[in-house]
Amino acid sequence: MPGRNFLFVPGPTNVPDRVLRAMHVAMEDHRSSSFPSLIKPLFDNLKKIFKTQSGRCFIFPGSGTGGWEAALTNTLSPGDKVLSARFGQFSHLWTDMAQRLGLDVQVLDAEWGEAAPVERIAEALAADAQHRIRAVLIVHNETATGVKSDTAGVRRALDDARHPALLFVDGVSAIGAIDFRMDEWKVDCAVTGSQKALMLPPGLGIVCAGPRALAAGEQAKLKRVFFNFQDQIPQNDLGYFPYTPAVPMLYGLRESLAMLLEEGLENVFARHHRLAEGVRAAVKAWGLELCARSPKTYSDTVSAIMVPPDVKGQDVIDIAYRRYNLSLGAGLAKVSGKLFRIGHMGDLNELMLLGALGGAEMAMRDAGVAVVAGSGVAAAEECWRQAAASPQPVAMGAHAKA
Ligand SMILES: Cc1ncc(COP(=O)(O)O)c(C=O)c1O
User: Fold this and answer.
1) Would the CB of 90 count as within 6 Å of ligand 1?
2) Is 343 in the pocket of ligand 1 (CB under 6 A)?
């Protein structure tokens, strides 16, 4: 099909031309004396993205899943108790990994569409007088349902209970797109991947570990080899890696971090919020519901849109792809067929999103969803025109369906 594929899955996201060009390099010796001049600033700039001064970042060839494994295996021992909130496919998979690694996982289940249950986490922590829980696992932005959790609230729950458990956060579809504060929220380990807000191809798992997580590593007995922080640290300090890094990805990372810092993180967050508000205005105009139950948990990086019960979400996605060259995200596991997702994360602007909304509208009508032609596009346009005319950011949830 001529023209570009409209890639609106919630990762991989669009890779900006600037990043593509930066990655188009001849291979080089990753042990040369000039290599550290590429690597050392990456760690410094990544710390700005995680909003940390005391944390240490690790860049692994891999993906977000590898980042989860690095976080758990570098800090915990077999049989250690962890508390995990499960409210979507990614929080399910991280919970499952913790169980398969031999951890004793206390699972707090919530309905898919709800956020991590902060009150029940607080209760579980308060009930744990012996402080057996060693870590709390939270997915900050559940990509499967388009739900953002209150990670700052989980930190407050830990503090209120005076509980020493480590706080581990999956920021895979959040960090670099929506507010995340490693130091302020006293997050001990945070994970992301290259193919989301960092606007890179898939291929890197990035972890930031705070001082308590690094110290926990001294006692941690889970087996780790490829992801061992202790193998990385002495090499990273010199600007190298203990094994062959994904060199073009590192050039891409240098460029994508530069782009995020040039735009300014707060502006990046505001742009994501503004774009998400337009998508939510479209969903409302279509007369459809988001999977996310409450406006305060609406994700600014992905919207999961419920289709009517007589329509298969997969049909909308297939038609969008085959007829209109638009890639939408599928419903995963429990919500398979019940929804489709629009990723609005990374290198994106209003007009690109209008294309996706228009394509989704056409595909929905083709699949038998009774939406009025042009209704979602018009609502998003008006939302963004208003935002452009006003110096104030559009209020959180202003176009949200209660
Ligand atoms: C929130 C979240 N966590 C973890 C993952 C897993 O990351 P990866 O597919 O890069 O291993 C994803 C992937 O989409 C995700 O959205």
Assistant:
1) yes
2) no
